[in-house]
Design brief:
Elements (H helix, E strand, L loop, with lengths): L1 E4 L3 E4 L4 E4 L15 H14 L3 E5 L5 H13 L4 E7 L3 H10 L6 E8 L2 H8 L3 H16 L5 E6 L6 H13 L4 E6 L6 H14 L7 E6 L6 H10 L4 E4 L13 H10 L15 H12 L20 H9 L19 E3 L5 H10 L7 H17 L3 E2 H12 L5 E9 L6 E9 L2 E9 L2 H12 L5 E9 L8 E9 L2 E9 L2 H19 L11
Parallel strand pairs: 3-4, 3-10, 4-5, 5-6, 6-7, 7-8, 8-9, 9-10
Antiparallel strand pairs: 1-2, 11-12, 13-14, 14-15, 16-17, 17-18
Helix pairs in contact: 1-2, 1-10, 2-3, 5-6, 6-7, 7-8, 13-14, 15-16
Length: about 525
């Protein structure tokens, strides 16, 4: 079986389209905010990774969202750029079309709730009204682009007969992709297999569209539900890097892609993903969002290919296949991590950054990172890949408004600590002094004096980047203000300096988020 698609042409039934919603659904997660530059950087990385469709945002939500979708549409090549819109919102669909106007290839993705629970309490609409909106909404979207996707929000809890009617209406109105999301992560693999099999059998015109699965992870079943959806006939999967997303997140792109590749005997399907880039893109997202990947995360967690058990180590040394079902290199891991020292030069440093996936740094960021590397190498006996990643990540984060310059501390046990902090605030150098209950408290008080704000410190944690007493510290800070939440990270051989860097990073993100509005009732 094969069919023609307006964006992809003739698609074989064994080909699975990868639809990434990191920049839309992923960014809706508390604390996971990105500025325009970061979104553009992620979009370029996703396109290079081989993602077929990039959902760039929800243009009608705010001027900032419109601008980010518009800029991604202008500058990102190779992938279809998609914008979200509510089926019943004429302004939504118009805004999506305008934001996507200059895209190389574009898609409007419209959605409306179809479950009895959502229609009654969220939409407050009768089923027949929802059916009418599906027709008018998809017709309007199709007038702006040939590539239209329609989603049945809370589709997994929708009455089967009504779901069939909705899908049929969307197809007749011009939708070319039909998405059935498990919006609240309630479904089981058996549910998703049944739903997609039913729709393909019962709905007229089902053989002329692509069915898509969008599964949330509230019960930890998102990837399993997605694979079951593919077995049921879905040929597009909606996912995010590192599985980020609302609540417990979405199905993780890297897990789905590697499951299809590793178990091709069970799932005889292909994707266009360049798998050796998976780790690089995962790390990039972690840097931008300040959310580290959990150590035991499949595929991209730092323990994914680590073996401590003596029996396991012995087996791997004799034959890696005894305990490794895929090679570390196939997803971007390298075997060696001990790298450089204080005598390493700028050219070697640049080559190392390129091997770690940092091949797009401008001269200013490269110089700053190299300077910090030399300083670190003077203080550490051995500099590891993880050390370089930590300090470079800290340099490439956005510091447009506030930059850390210098910190001087005086601390004696049993007595208040004194901190003198220097910041660069939009080009103006500000120095402040403060005391506190310990060096971190004193430094944060000095930061408050230098840049007054009302944000509340909601989380503070410190971890070592590598082993040893000379290891760099990586600090995470969470700030909350008026219901908005942001996370920041910082790294330095000095723990207090790493804490200040993390706080500054969080403040910069908060300044961006203050001007953003949240999309209304957006939970697809």
């Amino acid at each position: 079986m094969s069919f023609d698609h307006p964006s992809f042409g003739k698609i074989d039934a064994s080909r699975v389209i990868i639809f990434d919603t990191t920049l839309r659904d992923g960014e809706q997660s508390p604390g996971f905010s990105m500025n325009l530059a970061e979104k553009l950087r992620m979009a370029e990385a996703l396109a290079t990774l081989g993602v077929d469709v990039i959902e760039a945002g929800f243009p009608v939500a705010s001027k900032g969202d419109f601008e980010s979708v518009n800029q991604i549409a202008r500058h990102t090549k190779g992938s279809v750029i998609c914008a979200l819109a509510r089926t019943g919102g004429a302004k939504d669909i118009t805004a999506a079309g305008e934001a996507l106007a200059q895209a190389e290839r574009k898609r409007i993705h419209n959605f409306i709730s179809t479950s009895p629970l959502h229609m009654k309490y969220k939409l407050r609409m009768e089923p027949e009204t929802v059916l009418e909106l599906i027709t008018t909404g998809n017709t309007a979207a199709r007038n702006l682009t040939d590539d239209v996707e329609w989603s049945a929000e809370d589709g997994s809890r929708t009455d089967p007969d009504f779901l069939c009617r909705c899908v049929e209406a969307a197809i007749k109105a011009g939708a070319t992709t039909i998405n059935i999301p498990d919006t609240v992560g309630y479904a089981t693999p058996e549910d998703m297999l049944r739903i997609f099999s039913m729709l393909r059998e019962r709905v007229p015109g089902a053989d002329q569209v692509i069915f898509s699965a969008h599964n949330h992870n509230d019960l930890g079943l998102a990837v399993a539900n997605t694979l079951a959806s593919v077995e049921g006939g879905a040929r597009q999967i909606e996912c995010t890097i590192n599985g980020i997303g609302e609540r417990a997140g979405n199905a993780a792109l890297e897990e789905i892609v590697m499951a299809l590749r590793t178990r091709n005997d069970q799932y005889p399907f292909t994707t266009g993903i360049n798998t050796p880039d998976l780790l690089k893109v995962s790390r990039m997202l972690a840097t931008i969002t300040s959310f580290d990947v959990q150590p035991n995360k499949a595929i991209v967690g730092r323990n994914a290919f680590a073996h401590e058990s003596g029996i396991h180590q012995d087996g791997v040394l004799k034959n890696a296949a005894t305990y490794e079902i895929m090679t570390p290199e196939s997803v971007g891991w390298t075997r060696s991590s001990l790298v450089m020292g204080k005598h390493s030069g700028r050219a070697a440093f640049r080559d190392k950054l390129k091997s770690l996936g940092y091949d797009g740094l401008d001269d200013a960021k490269l110089n700053d990172a190299f300077s910090r590397f030399k300083d670190l190498a003077d203080r550490k006996k051995a500099v590891y890949d993880e050390d370089i990643i930590a300090l470079v990540d800290d340099e490439v984060r956005d510091h447009a408004h506030i930059r850390f310059e210098h910190l001087k501390l005086a601390s004696v046990s049993g007595q208040p600590s004194d901190a003198e902090l220097t910041l660069n605030v939009e080009g103006k150098v500000i120095t402040s002094q403060a005391i506190g209950n310990g060096p971190v408290d004193a430094a944060f008080n000095a930061l408050q004096a230098a840049f007054p704000h009302d944000a509340r410190l909601a989380l503070f944690s410190v971890a070592a980047v590598t082993e040893g007493t000379d290891a760099q510290a990586r600090t995470s800070v969470r700030l909350e203000e008026d219901g908005k939440m942001v996370d920041g990270q910082g790294a330095d051989a000095d723990t207090v300096v790493s804490a200040v860097r993390a706080y500054v990073h969080a403040l910069n993100k908060l300044l961006i988020k203050r001007d953003r509005t949240e999309p209304e009732a957006l939970t697809v």
